[in-house]
Amino acid sequence: MRKTKVYDCTMIELDKHHSDRKGNITVVENNDTIPFGIKRTYYLYDVPGGESRGGHAHKELSQLIIAASGSFTVTLDDGNVKRTFLLNRPYQGLYIVPGIWRTLDDFSSGAVCLVLASHGYDEKDYIRDYHKFIEYKNDGEITF
């Protein structure tokens, strides 16, 4: 997965069902709406102004990141190219493939970042040092 590129990541339009009287509902289904089965779900909220989240990459994990409320930016980096996405609609998600460095910034007041992940938590899957990430992308080896 180290050869993945930021252009392998994409915005996914999620099904939005609207009712004038009852509001909206959006549905996400394993291996249908998104290209993986969901093994873990978590959300970030009450992120203080000016703070960043993320700042890591995963070797195997895929994610769908959704702004369930409010807005924030996600910057993706494959070691050569960076792309920044503004997430501000609860019916859109950013699909992130393994091997991509991600940073989340510019959280609006009351923002809720919902993350659907393809695997459970595994610390061994994380690359938390950017220089180690570049080593991994270049040759697949990480020296600790």
TrEMBL record:
Name the UniProt record assigns to this protein: Sugar 3,4-ketoisomerase QdtA cupin domain-containing protein
Residue ranges occupied by any Sugar 3,4-ketoisomerase QdtA cupin domain in the UniProt entry: 8-137
InterPro entries referenced in this protein's UniProt entry, alphabetically: QdtA_cupin_dom (IPR008894), RmlC-like_jellyroll (IPR014710), RmlC_Cupin_sf (IPR011051)
Signal peptide positions on this chain: none
Matches recorded under Pfam families: FdtA
Top-level lineage group: Bacteria
Source organism per UniProt: Bacteroides cellulosilyticus CL02T12C19
